[in-house]
Design goal:
CATH class of the largest domain: Alpha Beta
Shape: globular
Structural class: alpha/beta
Number of strands: 9
Order of helices and strands: HEHEHEHHEHHEHHHEEEHE
Largest sheet: 5 strands, parallel
Distance between the termini: 42 Å
CATH superfamily of the largest domain: HUPs
CATH architecture of the largest domain: 3-Layer(aba) Sandwich
Radius of gyration: 20 Å
Bound molecules: xanthosine-5'-monophosphate
CATH topology of the largest domain: Rossmann fold
Strand order of the largest sheet: 3-2-1-4-5
Length: 317
């Protein structure tokens, strides 16, 4: 019978045998899968696992620092890489969501390749691929698609010539969470909502600028903190804030304002394939809206997304 403990024991033994004294590089995303994969590999090979965590400038407010801290606390050999400017530069002038995704994916691969090169004699690429990723490898989204589109642009990056080790590729998401829990991984990482690889880059509709990222991070932090303190964060599959490419008229004191609009999204789902919008309490929505408008300069209107998937999608881009 499958249990998290038996899985952990056999997987670590198998990894030790397979990897011996070889070095492995692995990209951490802050998400559940890459974190659990890293901890398993760390148990098997210790300091021979070189983790790379890239700050793409498109993460939630303070997320890079706090997640990096959690990783270090877990004993992982992790290097945090500030590549914010490289991502912002690559996004200048891009409006089309797929162009933005490709640009973000391409920069990620370049940054990761640069970092992987600094690890002498590395033999393996570790990945947090889970079973549904294996079956859905034809999907248009996700890292494999990113790598493919990069592949079409130029040659294969060097790190992709590495052998691949994927300790979670037989597991479903709920099993990964159970394994993570049995490994003692912090609930701050295990319980977090899904977050797209391109991050806020696809939650800012239209062109991404640093100023829009800053505004959106502030609004989003207010939203997520309120979901947490109201005790609804764990009941929601995924929540996020979207920066809309419109301005609307408002009034502050005696002054007319003409500022930006953010949309709040919260959905219930089992697997992200279909989703219903969450019926959040009106009082909670009112509190969040007031806090955002009163505290985030540049926003004078908040709307709530009441679309389900299908026919809408969870993200707006
Ligand atoms: P949609 O918007 O298609 O999203 O309903 C379904 C799930 O996938 C996530 N998502 C992405 N994840 N790269 C990712 O790694 C992407 O480009 C991407 N686009 C959407 C989305 O957050 C949701 O969990």
């Amino acid at each position: 019978d499958w249990t998290p403990d038996s899985f952990i024991e056999t997987t670590i033994a198998g990894l030790k045998e397979k990897l011996g004294d070889d070095k492995v590089v692995l990209g951490l995303s802050g998400g559940v899968d890459s974190s659990v994969a890293a901890v398993l590999l760390h148990h098997a090979i210790g300091k021979n696992l070189y983790c790379i965590f890239v700050d793409n400038g498109l993460l939630r407010k303070d997320e890079f620092e706090s997640v990096l801290e959690s990783y270090k606390h877990m004993g992982l050999n992790v290097k945090g890489v500030d590549a914010k400017q490289r991502f912002y530069d690559a996004l200048v002038g891009l409006i089309d969501p797929e162009h933005k995704r490709k640009a973000i994916g391409r920069v990620f691969i370049d940054v990761f390749d640069d970092e992987a090169h600094q690890v002498q004699d590395v033999k393996w690429l570790g990945q947090g691929t889970i079973y549904p990723d294996v079956i859905e490898s034809v999907s248009v989204k996700g890292p494999s698609a990113t790598i493919k589109s990069h592949h079409n642009v130029g040659g294969l990056p060097d790190f992709m010539k590495l052998k691949v080790v994927e300790p979670l590729n037989t597991l479903f998401k709920d099993e990964v969470r159970k394994v993570g829990k049995a490994l003692g991984i912090d609930n701050n990482i295990l319980g977090r909502h899904p977050f797209p690889g391109p991050g806020l880059g696809i939650r800012i509709l239209g062109e991404v600028t640093q100023e829009k990222v800053r505004i959106l991070q502030e609004a989003d932090a207010i939203y997520i903190n309120n979901l947490r303190s109201a005790g609804v964060y764990d009941k929601v599959w995924q929540a996020g804030t979207i920066f809309l490419p419109v301005q609307s008229v408002g009034v502050m004191g005696d002054e007319r304002t003409y500022e930006h609009v953010v949309a709040l999204r919260a959905v219930e789902s089992l697997d992200g394939m279909t989703a219903d919008w969450c019926h959040l309490p009106y009082d909670l929505l009112a509190k969040i809206s007031n806090e955002i408008i009163n505290n985030v300069k540049g926003i004078n209107r908040v709307v709530y997304d009441i679309s389900s998937k299908p026919p809408a999608t969870i993200e707006w881009e």
